[in-house]
Write a structure and sequence with these properties.
The complex is a heterodimer.
Chain A: E1 2-9, E2 12-19, H1 24-31, E3 51-53, E4 56-58, E5 72-74, H2 87-94, H3 104-119, H4 138-144, H5 155-169
Parallel strand pairs in A: 1-5
Antiparallel strand pairs in A: 1-2, 3-4, 3-5
Helix pairs in contact in A: 2-5
Chain B: E1 5-8, H1 12-20, E2 25-28, H2 34-40, E3 47-50, E4 59-61, E5 67-70, H3 75-80, H4 82-87, H5 89-96, H6 101-104, H7 109-114, H8 165-171, E6 175-180, E7 183-188, H9 189-192, E8 211-217, E9 226-231, E10 242-251, E11 254-263, E12 270-271, H10 273-279, H11 286-297, H12 309-328
Parallel strand pairs in B: 1-3, 2-3
Antiparallel strand pairs in B: 4-5, 5-8, 6-7, 6-8, 9-10, 10-11, 11-12
Helix pairs in contact in B: 5-8, 10-11, 11-12
The chains are: A alpha+beta, B alpha+beta.
């Protein structure tokens, strides 16, 4: 059954008719040609489809597009400002934080979202003092990024890239 | 996936009416479990009533001095809420131990309560499962049952409830506020879930069309000293083998009051009432914690694949209570 959906994707307003069964991920890739989010497991377990929905990181494979009518979606592609890469994108390049690259757009969106969460003071599973300040050390980065799998095993450099982004934002 | 009609509910009563009158209808909130089940063929609704945008997204002080959590509050927002972090830390910790950051953004309070077991046989349409198809048989009993229940099992089903949040809510004596065709009612968490018995296809005592409006936390002063510990095969992003939520009030070295609930061990979050009764008034020592844990677990019915959960649950109870006692001292 069809439904009308309006979304803002990477800055462009898009209006289209979709089958209600269409996930946000399939809409982005198959209908709008936004190929940055990837279909890995399609069951919410790998994080390759992660984007920012209204500024917050979210998996798109377990979301029906029709339920997100009106949302603003930013994919990894939409993070850059023309030729100028987002700091997280640049640091992934500088730190060689990928091999095949399939998980990378999801990793980058997840990193952008989680840095915002930490900035807002949100604790994580490894935060010892729930009401204290959040310091994104390596243990915190690993925990907060655990929803993004990398089958190449580039985790060490992914942590290094994110650590570097944070260091540049808050110089010692 | 079976085609379905999608409707956005205009208010809670509208949502209830739409689902109550149509056997194939289901509520949709964050979708992180339901959409997966629709992909797998476990759920085949012909109408989805979207309740995620109903004005049920607030966390507020309740008149009784507790906290009322709206059904549509996102797991990430609930975990980060300053009032929850301060007054009910076990609840924040439980939420943060569940799923991943990008799933918690979508998942809601009510959806978390309503999520279904991750028993691999339940999720696999090619294997018999009494929860999916009543009378079909249970593949886990005699199959791979490392993740399965040790308490409250039946000959029909040994599935566990997957929620971390619900374990904390059970320990903190939360109630679920529900709207149905007959009106509103409050269901204590202890009466919300069902043991499998011979009706393992029923997870909860909700009636057809009943919609969760909120979760209410009673005022519980010593919940400020509560904790949630989760033991799992990976350090992160995995379901619990065993988990423990506890709150402890120690005065002059004795247990003035205590709440303990276990996860990963039963078809419901398992409130350890027997252990609590043994502990009240007694010494707040590891030996006493161990004796109480053993008493609670005396009723365990472990299988060869999950017998390790009995000592694991005991040790985790002792560990959490000992840490809380030290914090209080």
């Amino acid at each position: 059954m069809d439904a009308r959906v309006t979304l803002t994707v990477d800055g462009s307003r898009r209006e289209l008719t979709v089958d209600t069964r269409t996930t946000l991920l399939d809409l982005l890739r198959d209908r709008l040609g936004a190929m940055a989010p990837k279909k890995g497991c399609d069951h919410g377990q790998c994080g390759a489809c992660t984007v920012l929905i209204d500024g917050r990181r979210a998996t798109t494979c377990l979301a029906f597009a029709v339920a997100h009518d009106g949302a603003t979606v930013t994919t990894a592609q939409g993070l850059s400002n023309g030729a100028e890469l987002h700091p997280v994108q640049q640091d992934f390049l500088d730190h060689d934080a990928f091999q095949c690259g399939y998980c990378t757009p999801g990793q980058i969106c997840s990193a952008v979202g989680m840095i915002e969460e930490a900035r807002a003071g949100h604790p994580s599973h490894v935060t010892r003092d729930l009401t204290g300040p959040v310091v994104l050390d390596d243990e915190e980065i690993r925990e907060r990024m655990s929803g993004n799998l990398c089958r190449c095993g580039a985790y060490v450099n992914i942590v290094a890239a994110i650590r570097d982004v944070i260091l540049k934002e808050t110089p010692p | 996936m079976r085609p379905f009609k999608y409707v956005r509910a205009t208010d809670p009563a509208n949502a209830v009416a739409l689902v109550a009158n149509r056997p194939g209808a289901a509520f949709l909130a964050g979708g992180t479990n339901l959409v997966d089940h629709m992909k797998l063929g476990i759920a085949e609704p012909d109408l989805l009533v979207d309740v995620s945008r109903l004005p049920l997204d607030r966390i507020e002080q309740s008149p009784a001095g507790g906290v009322r959590i709206g059904a549509a509050v996102r797991n990430s927002d609930l975990a980060a809420d300053p009032m929850i972090r301060t007054r009910y830390p076990a609840l924040s910790q439980a939420l943060l131990a569940g799923a991943s950051g990008q799933l918690r953004t979508l998942a809601t309070t009510a959806g978390n309560l309503m999520q279904r077991t991750r028993c691999p046989y339940f999720q696999d349409l090619t294997t018999p499962c009494n929860k999916r198809t009543p009378g079909a048989g249970c593949s886990a009993i005699g199959g791979h049952n490392r993740d399965h229940a040790i308490l409250g099992c039946s000959a029909e089903c040994i599935a566990t409830h997957p929620s971390d949040m619900a374990v904390a809510l059970a320990a903190l004596e939360a109630s679920v506020v529900v709207l149905g065709p007959e009106g509103e009612r409050r269901v204590p968490l202890a009466d919300f879930y069902r043991l499998p018995g011979d009706t393992p296809h029923l997870d909860t005592n909700l009636g057809r069309g009943e919609l969760i409006l909120a979760v209410e936390m009673p005022p519980l002063a010593f919940a400020e000293r509560s904790a949630y510990r989760k033991v799992r095969d990976r350090a992160s992003f995995a379901f619990a083998l065993v988990s423990v939520a506890a709150a402890l009030d120690v005065r002059d070295g004795a247990v003035a009051d205590v709440r303990v609930a276990l996860g990963g061990v039963a078809h419901t979050p398992w409130r350890a009432l027997r252990a609590e009764a043994m502990l009240r008034g007694g010494p707040a020592t590891p030996d006493a914690f161990r004796a109480a844990a053993d008493a609670e677990l005396a009723a365990a019915q472990p299988l060869p694949g999950n017998a390790f959960k009995v000592p694991l649950a005991r040790n985790t109870i002792v560990n959490v209570l000992t840490a809380l006692a030290r914090e209080t001292a």
